[in-house]
Amino acid sequence: MSKKTETVQRTTLQPMKKMKLLYLMLLLPVIMLFVFNYLPMYGVLIAFKDFSPGLGIWGSAWNQFDHFTRLFSDFLFIRALSNTLWISILKIIIAFPAPILFALLLNEIRNQKFLKVTQSISYLPHFMSWVILSAMIIEVFSPQRGIVNFIITSFGGDPIHFLSSKLYFIPVLLLTDIWKEVGYGAIIYLAAIASVDPSLYEAADMDGAGRFKKMLHITLPSIMPMVIILFILRLGGILNAGFDQILNLYNPLVYEVADIIDTYVYRSGLEQFQFDYATAVGLFKNIIGVIFILGANAIIRRKSEHGIW
Predict the structure, then answer these.
(1) Membrane-crossing residues (predicted)?
(2) Assigned domain for 75 exists
């Protein structure tokens, strides 16, 4: 072994020896990632087979892509796909900017006590599961007991079945999604705002700029790289319209507007025991997500210097 190779190995291994405890701590998450995220990929083979639990994955016969052919002749899948895209687009247009605006508003609060209370209240819903929140939402919008309908009837209106109405279900979905995630989603933007160079604000003060002008011309452009990265990642999950939220809130009366790919997979796989077909639908969804994230990153990289890679 040459002296140059020995030197390279020594300079590589010495820092690792010094941080061996940190690498040991990293070992458990890596093992968990491998066991729960990579080993299950073996099950993707089910999408290409006529799966029989008795025969197992390898024993089941190959199906010549029959499940993928079936996708586009299945009315329920087409409906779920269009609902998923529609709900995701609405969430991108309406819900995605909400944490940005909330972070900008929080940054303008000068009373620290009020700021901490506001942040704590806004963060709280994120740490509650949709199982708990959906029970609260169902009570709030209940036609008999809900406070929303109580206010409506107090002004002479008729009770509205919000969660059973095709007209009102999607607005309730968007509103509750913003309520749950706006506070926690603002954290990363607040961190980006904290890294803005203070001298820019000082220069703006000397030029006579007000708080709104500074927010518009300094704060917002400074956090734009972070906004772009999160937007690209959000596009990558465009076929994730909120499985937990919809599963706990929807019912057969609103399937026409609320049934998404994830709930369709849930019913096909776990309720109807079509494991192979449900796997094919899930694989299709993931492939589309990868295409979206690659395409969005490529387009944004052409128009600006920002991107994921």
Answers:
(1) 21-39, 85-109, 121-141, 182-201, 222-243, 277-300
(2) yes
Query: How far apart, in whole angstroms, are the C-alpha atoms of residue 275 and residue 57?
Result: 11
**Judgement on whether residues 281 and 228 belong to the same structural domain of the protein:** yes
Write the CB contacts of 306 (distance below 8 Å, at least 6 apart in sequence). 224, 225, 228, 229, 300
Nearest to 224 by CA among 45, 73, 138, 104: 104
Single out the residue of 213, 192, 178, 180 nearest to residue 103, CA to CA: 192
274, 50 contact by CB (below 8 A): no
Nearest to 106 by CA among 91, 93, 122: 122
pLDDT at 87 over 90: yes
Calpha distance 66→280 (Å, rounded): 10
> Are 180 and 249 in contact, with CB atoms under 8 Å apart?
no
pTM exceeds 0.85 for this model? no
Contact 276, 50 (CB under 8 A): yes
The verdict on 26 and 105 lying in the same domain is no
CATH number assigned to the domain comprising residue 180: 1.10.3720.10
Q: What is the mean pLDDT of residues 22-34?
A: 88
Question: What is the DSSP code string of 171-203?
Answer: HHHHHHHHHHHHHHHHHHHHHHHHTS-HHHHHH
Domain count, the chain: 2
Pull the structure tokens for residue 78. 């087409």
Closest to 86 in 3D by CA, of 236, 239, 231: 239
In the block, residue with structure tokens 């900017």? 97
Does the CA dihedral 122-124-126-130 come out positive or negative?
negative
Q: Which residue has the higher pLDDT, 304 or 82?
A: 82
